[in-house]
Design brief:
heterodimer, A: alpha+beta, 6-stranded antiparallel β-sheet, two-stranded antiparallel ribbon, B: about 170 residues, alpha/beta, 7-stranded mixed β-sheet, 7 strands, about 50% helix, rod-shaped
Chain lengths: ~260, ~170
């Protein structure tokens, strides 16, 4: 199997799994989205609460198509008229909030709020990640010495990188996974994988909520629950990853002969 | 408007435009991430620490655009900063082609609180400029103008009556 065939197969499986995850979230009234107190996930949550069950399903189907375009293309799916209508309604809902100024957390941006310490957030998160997945991590010993928090694991022959970011002004927690081959090209001191299977995998992305999973405006009391929520998101994906990659194990895939930047991403 | 207020509204406008950008450019819009994180999300695992923080990044391979948000009096600073970010993006990306943003169209007006709003320009060479308008400031200036014109009016009346007395009419 060539890398592009494997990548397409993975994207289709990831999309189908995302549909089932969305349905699970819907049945639980999108309880997981409550851990986000600001930003897109909160708006998404507000919007879906206004929809009845049928419209939630239609809206979800439309959002997932938007976030998994390659899989949608491979499966020959299209947007239905109902999906398009609900997607437009969501855009209008969002635009009205931006223009009207509603939804701005004035207090949080006043400059007077004391946000959680990024160092403490990193410490708690690192401890929880180690506890949950430490036995599967590669090069764990050097994690604390690195300025950027990144964990490496090997699943089905692929390297799973999990990146965490803590924000610049206001403290936030942002995470995503990438799946790539161990074999890499070196470019200006960095390793560029020969087979970048999938990138930007995160809870909000796979549910079609938004492109980045970010818990914003974190205060001291948010550290524990938010770190716990992030670990649960990681757990969900790590648990399904071997199934998504079954038959697509890295050693079975024929990698590209040329550097990845010479072919279309 | 005090500099503290300007900073507070600056943070608000960044937050609002960040959310708008992520929504309009989804799923490729990134806001609040460093150059290194943006590159990682694009698919280039950069090991270096790059503490540069562009305001908005569109990692759509068809666009690869970077934006900086600045108040209207800091346009030049915005351009210089953006140029620095682009150099780093293009240094680490073998494909290069990162450029100043032009695809995203921000809302023309953003209300920040009941008495303050911002007028926002479309990106020019990747820099999105905004100007804050405060109804409070406007009311203060208007009151000052009224007071000045009333004072002038009184002074004029006093002047005329004094002159009339002096001339013995």
């Amino acid at each position: 199997m060539t890398f592009s065939e494997a990548q397409q197969e993975f994207q289709v499986r990831y999309y189908l799994w995302s549909i089932s995850e969305f349905e699970k979230e819907r049945e639980e009234s999108f309880a997981s989205l409550r851990s986000f107190k600001a930003g897109q996930p909160q708006k998404f949550h507000q919007f879906v609460q206004r929809l009845d069950a049928d419209d939630q399903k239609i809206f979800g189907a439309g959002r997932l198509k938007k976030f998994h375009p390659n899989a949608v293309r491979a499966l020959g799916e299209n947007y239905s008229a109902e999906e398009q209508t609900l997607l437009l309604k969501f855009d209008e809902f969002h635009r009205a909030e931006v223009v009207s100024g509603s939804g701005i957390d004035t207090k949080m941006l006043s400059g007077k709020v004391k946000f959680a310490s990024k160092r403490k957030l990193r410490k708690v998160l690192t401890a929880k990640f180690r506890e949950a997945f430490g036995s599967q991590c590669l090069g764990l010993a050097s994690v604390d010495e690195e300025p950027e928090l990144q964990f490496k694991m090997k699943i089905s022959g692929w390297i799973f990188d999990t990146f965490f970011d803590f924000g610049r002004r206001e403290t936030f927690l942002d995470y995503h996974h990438s799946i790539s081959s161990e074999a890499a090209f070196e470019y200006r001191g960095n390793q560029i994988p020969k087979m970048p299977m999938c990138n930007r995998i995160s809870f909000c992305f796979w549910l079609g909520v938004c492109g980045q999973t970010q818990w914003k405006y974190l205060m001291d009391e948010d550290i524990e629950p938010v770190c716990q929520a992030a670990i649960m998101c990681c757990e969900r994906f790590f648990a399904v990853a071997p199934k998504l990659l079954k038959g697509l194990e890295a050693e079975k895939i024929e990698g590209p002969q040329h550097a990845p930047w010479e072919c279309q991403r | 408007m005090s500099s503290l207020d300007a900073a507070k509204y600056g943070r608000m406008i960044h937050a609002k435009l960040g959310e708008d950008f992520i929504q309009k450019m989804e799923p490729f819009g990134i806001s609040g991430s460093s150059v290194a994180t943006s590159l990682r999300k694009y698919g280039i695992n950069v090991d270096a620490i790059i503490a540069l923080l562009p305001d908005l990044v569109d990692i759509n391979p068809a666009n690869k655009e970077v934006y900086e948000i600045k108040p209207i009096n800091a346009a030049l600073l915005g351009e210089v900063q953006l140029e620095g970010y682009l150099q780093v993006f293009n240094y680490f990306d073998p494909v290069k082609t990162w450029k100043p943003g032009s695809t995203y169209v921000p809302p023309l007006e953003v209300t920040l609180d009941p008495l303050t709003y911002a007028i926002v320009s479309p990106p020019v060479r990747g820099v999105i400029l905004y100007k804050l308008f405060s109804v409070k400031d406007f009311a203060k200036r208007r009151a000052l103008n009224v007071a000045q014109s009333q004072t002038a009016d009184i002074q004029e009346s006093v002047g005329i009556s004094t002159l009339t007395t002096l001339l013995g009419f």
